[in-house]
Specification:
Elements: H1 8-48, H2 52-58, H3 62-69, H4 77-115, H5 134-158
């Protein structure tokens, strides 16, 4: 029986090239992540150079910037700052909605007082208040839609 020559080198060479390409892709990805981390650190350094009033205008504090820089180097410091600013905007929308709702209740109560429809029931006799006008309900629905759209736009802008 003759010894057959098997093409061992081309098969091994193909596996070696595949491993080299995979290693090169992994190193390229790491370098891109390192470059991205450096870019975000530079952006956060710009924020660290702003004074307290400018940071407040953006919606973050000096403590938020310190917290962002206390993260490890490979973590994105701007992600924490973006999260804190988003929380502030969400809380602001919530409390503004609560305040507007309270103002509407007070306005409706004042209107009822002016027309004489507002009465304080005698002890033990509670009257059901009249239904709000249809326009108030439609306005409340539209306001809820607008605040939801604003939140979606804000998240689309900041969360990337």
């Amino acid at each position: 029986m003759r010894n057959a020559n098997f093409p061992v080198l081309p098969i091994a060479g193909g596996a070696l090239v595949g491993a080299f390409v995979a290693l090169l892709a992994m190193i390229t990805r790491w370098l891109k992540e390192l470059a991205r981390a450096r870019q975000h650190r530079r952006q956060a350094n710009v924020l660290a150079g702003l004074d307290r009033h400018m940071l407040t205008d953006i919606g973050i504090t000096r403590a938020d910037v310190r917290d962002a820089f206390s993260e490890p180097f490979w973590d994105d410091p701007t992600a924490l700052l973006r999260e804190r600013a988003t929380q502030l905007v969400t809380q602001s929308i919530y409390w503004n909605t609560v305040n507007i709702g309270t103002g509407l209740i007070l306005l409706l109560g004042a209107q009822a007082m002016r027309t004489g429809d507002f009465t304080v029931p005698a002890r033990g006799r509670i009257q059901r208040p009249p239904a709000p006008p249809a326009g108030a309900i439609i306005w409340q629905d539209k306001f809820s839609q607008m605040s939801g759209n604003f939140t979606d736009l804000h998240n689309d802008f900041w969360v990337r």
